[in-house]
Design goal:
Elements: H1 12-49, E1 54-57, E2 61-68, H2 80-97, H3 104-126, E3 136-141, H4 150-166
Antiparallel strand pairs: 1-2, 2-3
Length: about 170
């Protein structure tokens, strides 16, 4: 007669199999936090700054409500459908990548990309009349920089993290 026992999680193969699931949970939790923060701050900006910009730190930081039909930082205007589809495809590729064991910084960056992509995708879906033609709300303005939002920031920071993570390490 065979006795059923729980798996030995201290063995190396069992721990390796758990890593991708844990990494996915971490990435998706980060994505959810960014998505919620992005959507809440956009609604706040729409209500608070639709009447005009508000200087926070003189000319260094201004909160200014604007709508963007293009990509991050108001690039490629009227290409919302393309970027909406690209966001869905990118999230799919990242979700697949998270099925493999990854370094912690990469998992965090992937979560930031998913959260940022979904934040702007939500605007394209919710704020438009047709397929992915909604305008994305941007509201943070710095000198010599296009107006942006939390989602744009998350994607940009994630790219920097991924670039630094790809640099060769000294031994």
């Amino acid at each position: 007669m065979r006795v059923l026992r729980p798996p030995d999680l201290s063995s190396e193969p069992a721990r390796a199999n758990l890593a991708p699931a844990r990494n996915a949970y971490i990435a998706y939790a980060i994505a959810l936090v960014i998505l919620i923060a992005d959507q809440l701050t956009k609604r706040w900006a729409e209500a608070a700054f639709a009447g005009g910009p508000q200087s926070i730190l003189g000319e260094i930081l201004i909160f200014r409500f604007s709508e963007n039909s293009g990509a991050a930082f108001s690039l490629f205007q009227n290409a919302g459908r393309f970027f909406g589809v690209a966001a869905v495809v990118a999230c799919g590729f990242i979700a697949y990548a998270l099925t493999k064991a990854r370094p912690r910084a990469e998992v965090i960056a992937f979560g930031m990309v998913i959260g940022g992509a979904l934040g702007n995708l939500a605007d394209r879906i919710i704020r438009g009349d047709g397929f992915l033609d909604g305008r994305v709300i941007d509201w943070i303005q710095l000198p010599y920089w296009p107006t942006f939002n939390i989602a744009d920031s998350a994607v940009s920071i994630a790219i920097v993290v991924l670039l630094f993570g790809s640099l060769p390490r000294r031994r």
